[in-house]
């Protein structure tokens, strides 16, 4: 590959919309790879732009960087991934997206009654605090060790 076919970190940032710091971070994580010049400057192959587009799409779906790394590890190393390779990876996102869409529709459909109910209670509100298991531990910092908490006196203040 000719050096003119390689992109600088600034060029990749400009073309991908990622900050250079994010590119260096993704490089350290192994999500993207670079080579180094004699002057120790990073250079990226043009295919990195597709990987970055994939990372952005995966993050928009809600994948963690660990999940992104697992997905990228499934891509062929000996050749540039094809459209079919990318489609195969993203196919598994449908169920996750459908769950997110369903949760958002439920929120949307109940929002009018939620705002108008007037409960103003994190303990009771199913929308702003669903399945709050820590509320049963009492008010305050639930993660603060019980033995270090002030004893409850039954009085306010």
UniProtKB/TrEMBL annotation:
BP terms from Gene Ontology: response to oxidative stress
Keywords: 2Fe-2S, DNA-binding, Iron, Iron-sulfur, Metal-binding, Transcription, Transcription regulation
Iron in keyword set: yes
InterPro entries, per database record: DNA-bd_dom_put_sf, MerR-type_HTH_dom, MerR_fam, Redox-sen_tscrpt-act_SoxR, Tscrpt_reg_MerR_DNA-bd
Domain HTH merR-type: 6-74
Any one Gene Ontology molecular-function term assigned to this protein's record: 2 iron, 2 sulfur cluster binding
SUPFAM superfamilies noted in UniProt: Putative DNA-binding domain
Pfam families: MerR, MerR-DNA-bind
SMART domains, per database record: HTH_MERR
Protein name according to UniProt: MerR family redox-sensitive transcriptional activator SoxR
Organism from which the protein derives: Actinocrispum wychmicini
């Amino acid at each position: 590959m000719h050096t003119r076919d390689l992109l600088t970190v600034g060029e990749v940032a400009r073309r991908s919309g990622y900050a250079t710091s994010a590119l260096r971070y993704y490089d350290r994580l192994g999500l993207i790879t670079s080579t180094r010049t004699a002057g120790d400057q990073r250079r990226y192959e043009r295919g990195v732009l597709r990987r970055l587009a994939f990372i952005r799409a995966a993050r928009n779906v809600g994948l963690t960087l660990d999940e992104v790394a697992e997905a990228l590890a499934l891509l062929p190393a000996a050749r540039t991934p094809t459209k079919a390779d990318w489609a195969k990876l993203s196919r598994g996102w449908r169920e996750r997206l459908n769950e997110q869409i369903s949760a958002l529709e439920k929120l949307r459909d109940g929002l009018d009654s939620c705002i108008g109910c007037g409960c103003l209670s994190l303990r009771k509100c199913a929308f702003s605090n669903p399945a709050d298991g820590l509320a049963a531990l009492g008010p305050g910092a639930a993660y603060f060790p019980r033995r270090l908490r002030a004893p409850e006196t039954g009085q306010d203040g």
